Amino acid sequence: MKPDWDKLVAEYKDSKTVLVADVDCTAGGKELCNEVGVRGYPTIKHGDPSDLEDYKGGRDLKALKKFAEGLGPLCSPANLDLCDADKKAKIKEFKDMGSEGRKKLIAEKEAEMQKIEADFKTFVDGLQKSYTEANEKKDKDLAAIKESGMGLAKAVHAHEKKGGKSEL
Fold first, then answer.
1. How far apart are CA 106 and CA 112, in angstroms?
2. In this protein, which residues make up the domain named Thioredoxin (predicted)?
């Protein structure tokens, strides 16, 4: 993906409305990556810099270019002219809360999101444990069947099919 990403960065380097860039999350960009929720590499984020979202589209140049062509300024307190009536009302509601009210709301919503992530991790860990147990049981059961003489039965069957006779 890196060569295609680098081409996209070059294509948008002079854009006044779209920023296409990369950050090294293993070095100087580690703090920024933690702040915006980068959990794996490569991760592509888009949207308002204060509320970036995960990109879920294709990773080739064609898909990246198509997505980037649709990017631009978004509805926000700095771009109210891009907002519909519902979003303007929501922005007013958040402004009217005051700084402390917004901090509290943001902390509550972030805690909700962390709980959802933790619940999902617990679920996946449970699935992994169940998978491991089922896989071990399957391997044990298959080994028991083979050890019960199945291989020898197959050999006798194949020998007899070929018309072979043996004395016991």
1. 10
2. 1-68
